[in-house]
Amino acid sequence: MTSVQIVEVGPRDGFQNIGPFIPTETKIAMIRDLTAAGLRRMEVTSFVSPRAIPQLADAAEVLADVLAQGATMPQVLVPNARYGQKAIDAGARFLSYAISVSESHSRSNVRATPHEALADYARLVAEAPAGVRMRINLATAFHCPYEGMTQPAAVLTLLGRSLEICPDAEVCLCDTTGRGTPAQVAALFEAAMTAYPEVSAWAMHAHDTYGHGTANVRAAYDRGVRIFDSAIGGLGGCPYAPGASGNVATEDVVRLFGDCGVETGVDLAALMPLATAASSLPGVKWSCSTVAAEAGAARLV
């Protein structure tokens, strides 16, 4: 049976926009429950300025527990080399580094141009000790909230430059605003895979702003992608992408692949109560999970 790997990003991308601070013990408990449901790879937190994203100020404590449990592979998002080193010092061995294709989004997100962010990525790669794995997230690969649709040539150029720095990095194309369409997703992955056949691991990060999330996941799968980001309960949204709603919901992606006969290793029945719990966290404004909605968990405030 064909299988895919789901990367649960709720503990990072899902939690980062929630205003009331989620107690560290609540985050840890949810990560443990998600692991028990079969999610064995997670973006558990981000090492970032607590002034910019106070919700993730407990990154070191959350990561320490995940490492101590040893049951899931923790992935950590870092915005620059400085915080990448902080993550490494805390024990992180799988770093996810985001570079926006759009200059406007890059300046808003990390206060640097894509060229400057790429140079910082090069410093991080050069300074990282042996055994640290890298993922490069190309944000706004399909659309920018400030500049509109992204040109595929710009994505391919930035991707090529990032691969010169770290040829064995996992590559993730990110639909940051959720405006990508299945045809656009299929075309960009086909172009990228043709241009850079040496890439061994491709991933898709989808949002569900216009209800295209699962369709875009399927389009990427049909082009050979086997790693997919999703968030429990459809939580999330980029704080520097106005109008972007939540990530494609983990439970929707699990159901999609289950209906297609594709193995995820995730127990949907065990996942559903967690979707309800995630959607009900104080400060969650809404959930775009259709499966959670069926269970009465989704809400719009």
UniProtKB/TrEMBL annotation:
Entry annotated with the keyword Aminoacyl-tRNA synthetase: no
Native species: Halodurantibacterium flavum
GO molecular function, one term: lyase activity
Family membership noted in the UniProt record: Belongs to the HMG-CoA lyase family.
UniProt protein name: Hydroxymethylglutaryl-CoA lyase
Domain Pyruvate carboxyltransferase: 4-272
InterPro entries xrefs: Aldolase_TIM, HMGL, PYR_CT
NCBIfam families the record matches: PRK05692.1
Keyword terms, alphabetized: Lyase, Metal-binding
